[in-house]
Please model this.
Amino acid sequence: MRGHQPLIAMRLRGKAPQAVWVKLGQDRQRQHATWPTETPQFAHLTIPDTDRMSALRSDLRCLTGMPIHVMADSFERFEEFVAVLMDWSPKRVFAYVAGTLYYLTEGATQWQEF
Model:
């Protein structure tokens, strides 16, 4: 995972961005490297396809209570991410997966399509 260290440090200081954007796969724009200085109100994380979601479980704790925006090329990879993410009770999850928009609000258990 890339871009999470500044977010963890921010959360440890008692601060939080307005939302977190998570790219599953390759982030050609490398926003995970620039968000702390260019857009600190919107954190950007990248999870390459080579990262195992189960190994990231504790690192995703920094997403607790946050609105999350996910971009993924495959629904299978998205489902792997969400299975780990939901352990940390995000406030809302919006997802763009393989051309379809989905959302899940706090306390809901079913994904809704836009």
